[in-house]
Design brief:
30% of the residues lie in helices and 24% in strands. The chain is of the alpha/beta class. The chain has one domain: Spore Coat Polysaccharide Biosynthesis Protein SpsA, Chain A (Alpha-Beta Complex), CATH 3.90.550.10. The strands form 3 sheets. Strands 1, 4, 5, 6, 8, 9, 10, 11, 12 and 14 form a 10-stranded mixed β-sheet that branches. A hairpin with a 2-residue loop joins strand 2 and strand 3. It is globular, with a radius of gyration of 18 Å. The protein starts with 5 loop residues before the first strand and ends with a strand. 41% of the residues are buried.
Length: 282
C-alpha cells in the first residue's frame, strides 16, 4: 500500500441473532475454521500493510480486548475504542475515533463478514475519484438486503422506491467502505448514529458517493445457520487448497506452532478514554 492507510473494524454489536453462541462470546470472536472472525480481517489488513487499525467494542468488550492483546501473528498497531455506557452505532463508533485520524480517509469494515472482496480495488477507486465516500457493493443483490441504486458508478439512493431513477439492477452494501475526512467530520463524536442516514443526507446535498461493484465470496455471519454454512464452505475450500488468499486462514495457521495449528483445524464448527470513550492501544 503506497500511501498511509488507517482502517476501522466495527465490532461493538450484541450479536443478538447468533444467540446462544454469543451469550458468552462477542460475535467478532466466533470462530471460522477455529480462527476468530476478527483475526481473519486483521490478518488481511496486515497483509495489505495498513498502518493502524481501530476496533470498537461494547458488548463483552473485556473478552474482545483480551483477544486483541494476544493476536498470534504480526499486525499493525491496534487502537481499541471502548463504547460506554451505551453503544454508539455504525456511524457513532467512527465519530468516536475522529481525532485520532489526523485528517486521513478511513477504510471501514465489519467484524462479522468473511469475504474475498477486492478491498484494494475499492481503495484505489476511492483515491482516484477523490469521492466523498465509496461504498463497496455486492452485485447481484443479496436476498433480504436493502437495495442500493446507482447511475453508472455513482450511488443515487437506497430502498425500494428509487428504482425508476436508476440504471440496471441494484446492489447490496457489503459493509466495506472508504470514508473521506470530510465525511467523518460530519459525524458527531459522542452520540449514537447509524451510517446510512449520513449517506442519504450527503446524497441530498449533492455529494459524490462512488459505487465499487464486485461479486465476491461473501458471508454475513449473522445467524447460526449462516455461521454453519460459512464454516462448511471454508473448510471445503481449505481441504481442496482453493481458499482465496484474501481469506488468509492458511496464513494465520502458518504463523502458529504446528501443534497449535493442528489443534485449531480439528475444532468442530458450530452447527446450529474520553468522556464516554476509553481508548487504548495494543
Amino acid at each position: 500500500m503506497p500511501q498511509p492507510l488507517k482502517a476501522m473494524i466495527l465490532a461493538a454489536g450484541f450479536g443478538t441473532r447468533l444467540r446462544p453462541i454469543t451469550n458468552a462470546l462477542p460475535k467478532p470472536l466466533v470462530p471460522i475454521s477455529g480462527i476468530p472472525l476478527i483475526y481473519v480481517t486483521i490478518k488481511r489488513l496486515a497483509l495489505m500493510q495498513v498502518d493502524e487499525i481501530f476496533v470498537n467494542g461494547h458488548y463483552l468488550w473485556e473478552k474482545l480486548k483480551a483477544a486483541l492483546e494476544t493476536i498470534p501473528f504480526p499486525h499493525p498497531p491496534i487502537t481499541f475504542s471502548r463504547e460506554t455506557p451505551e453503544i454508539l452505532g455504525t456511524a457513532g463508533g467512527i465519530g468516536a475515533i475522529r481525532e485520532f485520524l489526523n485528517g486521513e480517509d478511513l477504510l471501514v469494515l465489519s467484524s462479522d463478514i468473511i469475504t474475498d472482496f477486492d478491498i484494494e480495488g475499492l481503495i484505489d477507486c476511492h483515491k482516484r475519484s477523490k469521492a466523498f465516500a465509496t461504498m463497496g457493493l455486492l452485485k447481484p443483490r443479496r436476498q433480504g438486503k436493502t437495495p442500493v441504486w446507482c447511475l453508472e458508478d455513482k450511488i443515487i439512493g437506497f430502498g425500494e422506491d428509487i428504482g425508476s431513477l436508476a440504471c440496471g439492477e441494484p446492489g447490496s452494501f457489503s459493509v466495506i467502505q472508504m470514508l473521506s475526512n470530510e465525511f467523518i467530520k460530519e459525524i458527531p463524536e459522542r452520540e449514537y448514529s447509524e451510517i446510512i442516514p449520513f449517506y442519504k443526507r450527503f446524497l441530498s446535498e449533492g455529494k459524490t458517493i462512488k459505487a465499487f461493484f464486485t461479486d465476491p465470496l461473501w458471508y454475513d455471519i449473522g445467524e447460526p445457520a449462516q455461521l454453519q454454512k460459512a464454516n462448511q464452505h471454508i473448510r471445503q475450500l481449505l481441504e481442496s487448497g482453493k481458499l482465496p488468499p484474501q481469506i488468509p486462514i492458511v496464513e494465520i495457521l502458518s504463523d502458529l506452532p504446528k501443534w497449535k495449528a493442528e489443534e485449531v483445524t480439528k475444532q468442530p464448527a458450530y452447527t446450529t478514554d474520553h468522556d464516554d470513550q476509553e481508548i487504548s492501544s495494543t
